[in-house]
C-alpha cells in the first residue's frame, strides 16, 4: 500500500528516505530472509508438524521483530512511547510491515516490543549484523548491483579498537542505600504474596518501608548538616536492625509460598518468579549488612572485587575511568572495533571484572579468524592501552599490521614518520565519537534491561541498528529522483 503524499520538512523527507534505504538493505542483504529462516528453525524444534500457514506467520513475526527493534533504536523511545508512535505513524507502520493485508489489526504493545527484543539470542543478532556488513563489503552482492544500489564497497581492512564503560540502570552504590533496596525488594514480594490471602504476624508491610525511608532521609540529611559520626552510626544501626527483622519475615513468607503456592491460587510460573526474586535478595542481606558495617561502623575500605554495587545487577563492576566528571563509573566494559566507514565490526560486552585493554587481543583475533577471508582486517589500530610486546608479536603472527600507539615516546616518534601510521593515528580520534554515537543515540546512555543476557541482546540490537543506519548513509545512486512519488 503506497504512502499518501505528505509535504513535510526536509528532516521528515530525510527520515523517510533513510527508512527506505534501510528497507532496501534488509531485503537485498538477505538479513531479513535469514532471520525468518532462523525463526522457522527455532519454531520447528518446538512444533512437530508446522503448516505453510503457520510458517508464513512465523516469518512475518520475525520481520516485525527485526524492523521494530531497528526503528525503536533509531527513535530512542521506550517500549511504551514507541508503541504509541508506531500506531500513530503511517511511515513507521509501512516500514515495520503493519500496513499489509496479513498484518495484525493492532500494532504491537509495549510487552510485545519487549518480547521482540528478547526472543533472539545475541549470537543470532550478531550473525544478522554480519550478513549486512558482508553485503556492504561485497561488490557482487545485490546491494551493489541495482540502479539505486551502493556506489562504494564498505572498507573492512582497518579495525579501530577502543573500550568504554556501559553504565547500568542502577543508582550510586551508597552502602546504607543498599540496605533500603533489600528491605524494599523483600517487602514488595511479601505484599504481592499477601494479596492472595497469605497472612502471618507482621503488621502493616508498608510501615516497614516508610520507617526505612525516614531512616534513609536521616542519613542523607546528616551528611548535609555535618552530623557527627556517632549520630550517623546510631541511625545506621537502626537500619541494620530493621532489615534483619524484615529478612526473618521474608524467610517465613518464602517458606509458606514455597510449600502452599497452589493452595493460594498462584500458578507455578508466578510462584517461581516471586520465589527466585526473594531468594536472590535474602541471600544478599548478610553480605550487604557486612559491607555497610565495615564502611560505616568500622570505617574500613572494601576491595572493589568484593563490593556489592546493586542487589539487582550483581554483575555490575567498578570501572576506574580517571576522567573529569567520571573518575569512577559503575557498569560493564564494552569493547568496540569500527572500520574506516564507521560500521562496528567487532563488539564484546564483558561479563565480569573489566579487563586491561592489552587482554582484549585474543578475542579480537578469534573474531577475525571466524570471518570470511574477504572481510578480515589487515590493520589493527588502537591507543597505547592496547600496546604490549606480546600483542605486537601476535598481530604479526596473524599476518596483520599493528597501528597501535606505542607506549615508548621514542618508538612513537619513529612510527610517526610512517605515513600510514600517522594517518591511522589521526583517524583513531574519531573512534571516541563513534562510541559516543552508539551509547547516546542508540543505547540511551545506559542499559535499561536487567541481567547480562538481556543487556548483551540490547547492545547487539543497538549495533545492528547503528550499522544499517551507517550503511544507509553510505554513498548510493540517487534515490531522490522519485521521492515525490514515494
Quick description:
The protein has 486 residues and is of the alpha/beta class. Helices cover 56% and strands 10% of the residues.
Q: How would you portray this structure in words?
A:
- The chain has 486 residues and is of the alpha/beta class.
- The chain has 3 domains: 10-150 and 473-485, no CATH class; 158-170 and 315-448, Nucleotidyltransferase, domain 5, CATH 3.30.420; 175-306, no CATH class.
- 56% of the residues lie in helices and 10% in strands.
- The protein has 16 helices and 7 strands.
- It has helices at residues 10-28, 31-44, 52-75, 79-88, 90-96, 110-119, 122-137, 175-194, 205-224, 229-260, 268-297, 361-369, 389-397, 409-415, 419-442, 452-472, and strands spanning 158-168, 317-323, 326-338, 344-349, 379-382, 401-404, 446-447.
- Strands 1, 2, 3, 4, 5, 6 and 7 form a 7-stranded mixed sheet that branches.
- Helix 7 packs parallel to helix 16.
- It is globular and about 75 Å long.
- It starts with 9 loop residues before the first helix and ends in a 14-residue tail after the last helix.
- The relative contact order is 0.13.
- Residues 479-486 have low confidence and may be disordered.
Features:
single chain; 486 residues; alpha/beta; Nucleotidyltransferase, domain 5; 3 domains; seven-stranded mixed sheet; disordered C terminus
Amino acid at each position: 500500500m503506497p504512502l499518501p503524499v505528505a509535504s513535510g520538512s526536509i528532516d521528515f523527507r530525510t527520515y523517510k528516505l533513510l527508512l527506505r534505504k534501510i528497507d532496501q538493505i534488509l531485503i537485498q542483504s538477505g538479513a531479513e530472509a535469514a532471520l525468518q529462516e532462523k525463526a522457522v528453525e527455532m519454531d520447528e524444534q518446538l512444533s512437530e508438524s508446522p503448516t505453510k500457514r503457520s510458517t508464513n506467520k512465523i516469518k512475518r513475526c520475525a520481520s516485525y521483530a527485526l524492523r521494530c527493534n531497528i526503528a525503536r533504536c533509531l527513535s530512542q523511545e521506550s517500549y511504551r512511547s514507541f508503541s504509541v508512535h508506531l500506531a500513530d505513524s503511517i511511515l513507521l507502520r509501512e516500514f515495520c510491515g503493519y500496513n499489509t493485508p496479513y498484518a495484525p489489526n493492532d500494532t504491537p504493545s509495549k510487552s510485545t516490543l519487549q518480547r521482540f527484543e528478547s526472543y533472539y539470542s545475541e549470537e543470532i543478532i550478531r550473525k544478522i549484523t554480519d550478513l549486512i556488513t558482508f553485503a556492504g563489503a561485497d561488490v557482487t552482492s545485490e546491494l551493489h548491483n541495482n540502479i539505486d544500489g551502493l556506489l562504494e564497497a564498505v572498507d573492512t581492512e582497518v579495525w579501530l579498537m577502543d573500550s568504554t564503560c556501559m553504565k547500568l540502570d542502577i543508582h550510586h552504590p551508597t552502602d546504607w542505600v543498599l540496605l533500603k533496596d533489600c528491605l524494599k525488594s523483600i517487602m514488595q514480594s511479601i505484599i504481592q504474596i499477601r494479596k492472595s490471602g497469605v497472612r502471618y504476624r507482621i503488621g502493616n508491610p508498608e510501615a516497614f518501608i516508610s520507617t526505612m525511608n525516614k531512616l534513609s532521609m536521616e542519613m542523607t540529611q546528616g551528611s548535609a548538616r555535618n552530623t557527627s559520626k556517632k549520630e550517623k552510626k546510631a541511625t545506621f544501626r537502626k537500619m541494620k536492625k530493621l532489615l534483619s527483622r524484615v529478612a526473618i519475615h521474608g524467610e517465613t513468607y518464602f517458606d509458606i509460598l514455597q510449600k502452599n503456592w497452589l493452595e493460594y491460587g498462584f500458578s507455578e510460573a508466578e510462584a517461581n518468579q516471586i520465589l527466585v526474586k526473594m531468594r536472590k535478595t535474602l541471600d544478599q542481606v548478610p553480605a550487604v549488612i557486612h559491607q555497610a558495617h565495615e564502611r560505616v561502623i568500622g570505617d574500613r575500605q572494601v576491595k572493589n572485587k568484593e563490593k556489592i554495587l546493586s542487589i539487582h545487577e550483581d554483575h555490575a563492576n567498578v570501572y576506574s575511568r580517571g576522567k573529569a566528571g567520571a573518575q569512577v563509573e559503575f557498569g560493564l566494559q564494552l569493547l568496540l572495533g569500527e572500520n574506516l566507514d564507521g560500521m562496528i565490526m567487532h563488539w564484546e560486552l564483558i561479563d565480569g571484572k573489566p579487563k586491561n585493554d592489552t587482554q582484549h587481543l585474543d578475542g579480537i583475533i578469534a573474531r577475525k579468524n571466524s570471518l570470511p577471508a574477504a572481510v578480515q582486517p589487515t590493520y589493527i589500530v588502537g591507543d597505547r592501552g592496547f600496546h604490549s610486546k606480546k600483542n605486537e608479536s601476535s598481530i604479526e603472527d596473524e599476518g596483520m599490521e599493528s597501528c597501535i600507539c606505542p607506549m615508548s615516546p621514542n618508538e612513537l616518534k619513529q612510527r610517526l614518520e610512517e605515513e600510514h601510521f600517522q594517518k591511522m593515528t589521526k583517524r583513531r580520534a574519531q573512534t571516541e565519537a563513534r562510541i559516543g554515537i552508539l551509547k547516546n543515540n542508540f543505547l540511551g546512555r545506559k542499559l535499561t534491561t536487567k541481567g547480562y543476557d538481556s543487556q548483551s541482546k540490547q547492545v547487539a540490537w543497538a549495533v545492528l541498528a547503528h550499522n544499517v543506519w551507517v550503511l544507509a548513509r553510505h554513498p548510493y545512486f540517487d534515490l531522490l529522483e522519485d521521492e515525490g512519488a514515494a
